[in-house]
Amino acid sequence: MRPAQGIAADRKLCRDKPPGNKLRRKIILMPRPRRIEGFAIVSEDGMIANAEGIMPDSLKFEADQQCFERGLDEVDLVVHGGHSHERQPCSYLRRRLILTRQVPAIAADPFNEKALFWNPAGASFEQALALLGTPDGSVGVIGGTEVFGMFLDRYGVFHLSRAPNVRLPRGRPVFPEVPTRTPEEVLASHGLDRGQRQVLDPAKGVVIVSWKRSSKPD
Ligand SMILES: NC(=O)c1ccc[n+]([C@@H]2O[C@H](COP(=O)([O-])OP(=O)(O)OC[C@H]3O[C@@H](n4cnc5c(N)ncnc54)[C@H](OP(=O)(O)O)[C@@H]3O)[C@@H](O)[C@H]2O)c1
């Protein structure tokens, strides 16, 4: 596993893209405390995917995708289940933990040297981060339902985008408690405070709210 400096070098690779590419950023070499951020876009009824477990085009918006990409460009690794992904130009550069019950604890991904398969039943998050070479890395959690739910008490911030006029009956909810409770009720009940509402796409009415924890998470 490569140390944290390797991550910065990877970021530089990504950020050395030509002008106009939104992944260009200042390189930060200082180690940072762990920060866990969640990212999701939901339908009016709080779903991240339809009844078939597929994220439909009706939930995909350019402005939201750009915001998602900028957010992930700021984290050291992404965490997701086997059916979730970010599919961005720099995805191949990112370190990642992929949750699965197919391994007893932690195992290498034979197709991606920057990824590990992780079963939380067999190894702690901290053990997985250490093996990935990012013990203090900042983390982007990108789904799906169970994975979003696992981190509810640990998010420093959860970026929740909303797509109006889209309903996905019997779909995959953003958190296990949805639709019994709204995503906002779930976030608030786990100690996150509603941030300012920002309009991402005025024509389509897509908005994002970053829910932040005022007290330090566990
Ligand atoms: N709208 C959004 O923002 C958004 C965000 C994320 C995902 N999505 C969409 O939602 C759909 C997928 O949702 P999903 O909830 O089915 O997907 P998911 O969490 O990505 O994948 C489910 C798989 O992840 C593994 N997994 C999940 N929780 C686990 C746990 N606690 N321990 C061990 N392994 C665990 C299991 O893999 P094994 O079967 O290998 O054991 C499980 O079958 C996709 O269409 C995706 O594109 C949308």
**Overall structural domain count:** 1
Let me know the number of strands. Answer: 12
Rg calculated over all Cα atoms = 17 Å
The H-level CATH homologous superfamily, spelled out, is Dihydrofolate Reductase, subunit A
* Average pLDDT for all residues: 88
Distance between the termini: 26 Å
Detail the topology: elements first, then pairings.
Layout: H1 4-15, E1 36-42, E2 47-49, H2 62-72, E3 77-81, E4 95-99, E5 106-109, E6 112-118, H3 125-132, E7 139-141, H4 145-150, E8 157-162, E9 172-173, H5 183-189, E10 192-193, E11 197-201, E12 206-213
Description:
This protein is an alpha/beta fold. It has a single domain (32-213), classed as Dihydrofolate Reductase, subunit A (3-Layer(aba) Sandwich), CATH 3.40.430. It has five helices and twelve strands. It is globular, with a radius of gyration of 17 Å. 34% of the residues are buried. Residues 1-20 and 22-33 have low confidence and may be disordered. It binds NADP nicotinamide-adenine-dinucleotide phosphate.
